[in-house]
Design a protein that fits this description.
This protein has helices at about 15-25, 70-90, 100-115, 120-140, 155-175, 185-205, 220-240, 245-260, 260-265; strands at about 5-10, 30-40, 40-50, 55-60, 65-70. By secondary structure, the chain is α+β, with helices and mostly antiparallel strands. The protein has a five-stranded antiparallel sheet with strand order 1-5-4-3-2. Strand 2 and strand 3 (about 40-50) form a beta hairpin. Helix 4 (about 120-140) packs antiparallel against helix 7 (about 220-240) and helix 7 runs antiparallel to helix 8. The longest helix has 25 residues, at about 120-140. The protein is elongated.
């Protein structure tokens, strides 16, 4: 029996997915199996529907779209039913385009209220280890990081670092500048843009209101900053949550300022 695979549209089109569900049910299909998972930065959902003409597979994958695969006769029947469902669905007047202020506010709220699942936390932990190893290899070999005795004021530092710079820099560079995965088909472009601006922010600080922070002009510092920024951006992209990036950012700043000469380097 000939097989047919049809791309139906965007995976995040909720109206399309609702219409497809209606079309499947009206076609007499019965859901037999369903699973979903994450691989890298891709989310995949897989459904198997039994029909009188054979098994249909509905898959939705990030950046790939929503597809229907199975025996040609079954696929053609469901796609025809889908067109009928969409044609008879009442057309609701389009809402005015969402303003950029509201869009950024919604993006920030989502990043702050989303928490990673167990798999997301494990992925972030691995990313943090790799990030830390790369930064340590660079900083210790170039003299950027100088192991010292514990700098005074650790408790105050623990309270303040999580606000500035951790949360204070993660909000603009990783929450606001990075669109959610349902907002763009070019996530890597935005990862690159946000990371580049994050790196550039540090020399800007030195050249404007932090003239004593000359370390921010060192190539090895900027390289480590880029690694940290990229890691934070990937955590945000992978989990949809800002909090792993805040923890990573704040944790490294505490370690640097407390045991690796960061306090004296900043004057």
């Amino acid at each position: 029996m000939a097989q047919l695979n049809v791309h139906l549209g965007d995976e995040y089109d909720r109206d399309l997915r609702a219409a497809l569900l209606t079309a499947l049910l009206e076609s007499g299909a019965t859901l037999k199996n369903r699973w979903s998972g994450v691989g890298g930065s891709q989310e995949v959902s897989h459904e198997e529907w039994e029909t009188e003409h054979g098994l249909l597979v509905v898959e939705a994958e990030t950046y790939q779209g929503l597809s229907l695969e199975g025996p040609a006769e079954a696929v053609e029947l469901v796609t025809a039913r889908l067109a009928d469902v969409r044609a008879r669905t009442p057309v609701v007047s389009e809402a005015p385009p969402e303003g950029w202020v509201r869009r950024l506010g919604r993006r920030l709220a989502l990043a702050l209220t989303t928490l990673p699942d167990a798999a997301g936390w494990r992925w972030c932990a691995l990313a943090a280890v790799i990030c830390g190893a790369l930064m340590a290899a660079i900083g210790l070999s170039t003299g950027l990081y100088l192991p010292t005795e514990t700098a005074p004021g650790l408790m105050i530092r623990l309270l303040t670092v999580w606000v500035v710079p951790a949360l204070g820099e993660e909000i603009p560079f990783r929450a606001l500048l990075l669109p959610g995965r349902d907002e763009t088909r070019r996530p890597w472009l935005w990862v690159t843009v946000s990371t580049a601006l994050y790196v550039a922010w540090h020399p800007f600080e030195t050249l404007t209101f932090l003239p004593h922070a000359t370390m921010f002009l060192r190539w090895d510092f900027l390289l480590c900053t880029g690694i940290l920024g990229l890691s934070c951006a990937l955590m945000r992209l992978r989990t949809g949550s800002l909090w792993p990036a805040v923890l990573l950012h704040g944790g490294f700043v505490v370690v640097w300022q407390t045991w690796l000469g960061g306090v004296s380097a900043l004057g």
